[in-house]
Specification:
Length: 353
C-alpha cells in the first residue's frame, strides 16, 4: 500500500504545483496590467515588478486551499480517466485510504504555507509597501491615504509607512485646541530615541494664528509621544500582511487600549485555519471525483474546482465580515464554511464508499 499511497500523493502534489503556478501567473499578469498605469519617472517598471514579486509569497499562501481543491480534482481525475482508481477500488482499496493518500501532500504543503505566512510573506510585503511609499516620497506625493491614522496625546497623526526597525516615513501631526487647528508638522521621517522621545527629520511646521499663517522649516525637531515603535509598525501594516504572532501581539495591545481588534482576529483565524480549510476542500474534491465528476473531462473538473473554490472563498469572506459587523467571534464566522465543507465531504464519501 505504501507505493500506491506514494503514487496517489505524487499525482496530487504535481497537479497542485501546476495549479499554484498557474494561479500565481494569472495573479501576476492581472496585477501588472492593473498597476502599470502607476509607472512614472520615479515609480519605474522595475519598481513595479519588485513590488509584485515581493507580494507573491503572501499570494501563494492565500491560494493554497483553492489550489489544493483543483489540484486534487486534476490529480485524482487523471487517475480516474486512466481507470487506475477503478483498479484500486477493485483490488479492495477503500475510498478513505485513497483520500488519506491524497491528503498527505496537501497537509505538508499547507504547513509549508503556514511557515511562509509566518516568516517570509510579512517581511516581503513590508518591503513592497516601503518601495511604493519611497517612490511616492521621491515624486513629492504626500497622500493622506494608504497609511495609518492614530490619535496620540490629543494630536492626530498620519504615518505613511513604518519599517521593521520602527523608523517612520512621511509623517503629519495635526495639533488642535478644542475645535480649532493650531499647527501642522510635516516630517519626511522620524526615529525613536528612547522612551517617549522621537526625532523628526526635515520638518515643516505650519502655525495658524488668528490673523495670519506662519510657516517654518527645521532640519530636526524633538517629538514627545507615548507610542512604541513595535505597535506603530504593526498599526501601519494591513492586517492580511501580518504574521500570526504579530496579529496576536497587536490584538493584545488593542484590547489593553480598549480598542476594536475584530479585524485582526478575523485575519488571525483565516490564516490559522487555512490548513484545515485545505483538507476540507480535498474531501469535497475526493467526493466529487468518485461521484458526479467520475467520467467528466479535465476541463469540466477544472471548471467545477474553480466554481467550488470561488463559492468557498466568498462564503469565507461573507461569514467572516458578517461576524465582524455584528460583533460575533470571528473564529465562528471563519469556521462555518470550513465545517460545512468538512461535513459535506465526509457524508458524500461515506455514501460513495
Amino acid at each position: 500500500m505504501t507505493k500506491i499511497d506514494r503514487y496517489i500523493g505524487n499525482s496530487v502534489l504535481w497537479a497542485f504545483l501546476i495549479v499554484a503556478v498557474v494561479l500565481l501567473g494569472l495573479d501576476f499578469a492581472l496585477t501588472f496590467i492593473e498597476q502599470i498605469k502607476k509607472v512614472n519617472d520615479h515609480y519605474t517598471l522595475q519598481s513595479l515588478l519588485q513590488v509584485i514579486l515581493y507580494r507573491l509569497p503572501g499570494k501563494l499562501a492565500e491560494y493554497i486551499p483553492i489550489a489544493s481543491l483543483i489540484g486534487t480534482l486534476m490529480g485524482l481525475g487523471t487517475l480516474a480517466a486512466t481507470s487506475e482508481l477503478t483498479v484500486m477500488r477493485a483490488a479492495g482499496m477503500p475510498i478513505w485510504r485513497i483520500g488519506f493518500a491524497a491528503c498527505q501532500p496537501i497537509l505538508l504543503v499547507s504547513l509549508l504555507g503556514m511557515g511562509i505566512s509566518e516568516y517570509i510573506a510579512p517581511a516581503a510585503a513590508q518591503k513592497a509597501n516601503l518601495i511604493e511609499k519611497f517612490k511616492n516620497q521621491e515624486s513629492g506625493t504626500f497622500s493622506l491615504t494608504g497609511g495609518v491614522w492614530l490619535k496620540a496625546d490629543n494630536n492626530f497623526v498620519y504615518i505613511d509607512a513604518v519599517d521593521g526597525n520602527g523608523k517612520l516615513y512621511n509623517i503629519q501631526i495635526f495639533s488642535p485646541e478644542g475645535q480649532t487647528l493650531q499647527n501642522i508638522k510635516t516630517a519626511s521621517s522620524a526615529e525613536h530615541i528612547e522612551g517617549t522621545q522621537w526625532q523628526l527629520n526635515n520638518v515643516t511646521e505650519t502655525l495658524f494664528a488668528a490673523d495670519h499663517v506662519e510657516k517654518k522649516t527645521m532640519a530636526k525637531a524633538n517629538w514627545d509621544v507615548s507610542i512604541t515603535p513595535e505597535h506603530l509598525f504593526l498599526a501601519a501594516q494591513d492586517p492580511d500582511t501580518l504574521s500570526l504572532s504579530q496579529l496576536k501581539n497587536y490584538q493584545h495591545y488593542l484590547r489593553e487600549q480598549k480598542l476594536d481588534s475584530s479585524q485582526y482576529e478575523l485575519e488571525f483565524w483565516i490564516t490559522a485555519l487555512r490548513p484545515i480549510a485545505s483538507l476540507a476542500l480535498v474531501l469535497v474534491a475526493l467526493s466529487s471525483v468518485f461521484g458526479p465528476l467520475r467520467s467528466s473531462t479535465m476541463g469540466s473538473r477544472i471548471f467545477s474546482g474553480v466554481i467550488i473554490g470561488l463559492a468557498f472563498q466568498n462564503a469565507l469572506n461573507l461569514f467572516g465580515r458578517m461576524s465582524v459587523a455584528i460583533s460575533f467571534p470571528p473564529v465562528i464566522g471563519v469556521s462555518i464554511p470550513i465545517i460545512i465543507c468538512l461535513l459535506a465531504g465526509i457524508v458524500l464519501i461515506r455514501r460513495r464508499g
